[in-house]
Amino acid sequence: MARPAANPPVNGHKVCLTCGENKSVDDFRLRSPESTTLRPHCRRCLNARANKSSAGISARFRWILRTQYEMTTEEYQSLFDKQQGRCAICGGPPKAYSRLYVDHCHGTGLVRGLLCNTCNAGLGQFKDDLDLLKRAVEYMSRGGD
Description:
Blueprint: E1 13-15, E2 22-24, E3 28-30, E4 38-42, H1 43-51, H2 59-69, H3 73-82, E5 101-104, E6 111-115, H4 117-125, H5 130-141
Antiparallel strand pairs: 1-2, 3-4, 5-6
């Protein structure tokens, strides 16, 4: 892919190569902390591009899927569809502006399913200890007598 032509600021303004708007140089980030050169895309467009892919999955989450779970976004989406977009434990949908989290066995690293934040955090407190979870179920079964 060819690099875009130079896009220097003129009179304190610069055209964003993504949205095409002529904006103040304050709307652009520097290429690096040591640089005096501005990036070719405005802050808003950079943030939008970093936060969303075509599937609506953030770049950070794609990186987490790839590095921590060795999953692709397609595999995540397939599991999401299989669970009908619901938590594998409580069956509820993720809360607004949230997602289902990848649950995995800490011993084997194998993915078990997708969980809402509440169920994921709850399981995490038991540290994958089945005996501890069984004791918690027994405890809760006693009721409030």
